[in-house]
Design goal:
The protein has 220 residues and is α+β, with helices and mostly antiparallel strands. It is 51% helix and 13% strand. The protein has one domain (3-214): yeast vps74-n-term truncation variant domain like (yeast vps74-n-term truncation variant fold, Orthogonal Bundle), CATH 1.10.3630. The chain has 10 helices and 7 strands. Residues 208-220 have low confidence and may be disordered.
């Protein structure tokens, strides 16, 4: 399961969802995947511009589309700007559709305010999502920081995107602040995407307790 698919699933929660407060996590996860696969790099320093270093396709339609988008951009763009650009409804629905194909989600038509039709998704494979949450729990509350890159990125994106309180007690999370920061700062990719996600949320005006997605009704 790809990093964007994992992030989408850990953001699932009962209730109504809003794409506007959710998509930035997907954008950061897509950027993280391109960095892990060494298709792009982020320059060090304050400008942290993103550049393609290898345009070879990854045989993943969503990631290849994002890679092409970065490659076609004539003007170099900062990491947090790419988080915003990649946080499109198209990418959101594309990732959700892949999870539907894996029988983890199920698409349905829903209505917003009883009038506007939209595409929504139900979580039908609770076990898969619960296993991800368990991985997250072990990474957050154990004392080891020697984690696989997928787990490190999952922690970094969940921490920077304020997704951890969806699953764990806030007081317990605060007690793990030093550990969480150590994980995020443990490798350049995790630190880069965490900072980019945090900055993207700030410039877009998203405050605390945003980024919550619903189980029944992950919508556009």
């Amino acid at each position: 399961m790809t990093i964007p698919e994992q992030v989408l699933l850990i953001a699932v929660r009962d209730g109504e969802s809003k794409f506007e407060t959710y998509g930035y996590h997907i954008g950061a996860a897509l950027l993280a995947a391109l960095l892990v696969h060494e298709r792009v790099e982020v320059a060090s320093g304050r400008k942290n511009k993103v550049a393609v270093v290898d345009a070879t396709p990854l045989a993943d339609a969503v990631l290849d589309g994002c890679l092409s988008q970065v490659a076609d951009r004539r003007k170099s763009t900062r990491a947090h700007d790419w988080v915003l650009r990649l946080s499109s409804k198209r990418n959101y629905h594309a990732i959700a559709t892949v999870l539907c194909g894996k029988k983890v989600l199920q698409a349905k038509d829903a209505r917003n305010l009883y009038f506007f039709k939209r595409r929504a998704y139900d979580l039908v494979d609770l076990d898969t999502r619960d296993r991800l949450v368990e991985r997250l729990k072990v990474a957050v509350f154990s004392d080891t920081s020697d984690l696989h890159i997928d787990n490190r990125l999952l922690v970094a994106l969940a921490y920077a995107g304020e997704l951890l309180p969806l699953h764990f007690n806030k007081k317990l999370i605060r007690k793990r602040t030093r550990h969480l920061k150590h994980i995020v700062q443990g490798d350049s990719v995790s630190e880069t995407v965490a900072k980019a996600l945090k900055t993207a949320r700030q410039v877009s005006g998203l405050g605390s307790n945003t980024g919550v997605v619903a189980v029944a009704g992950m919508s556009s």
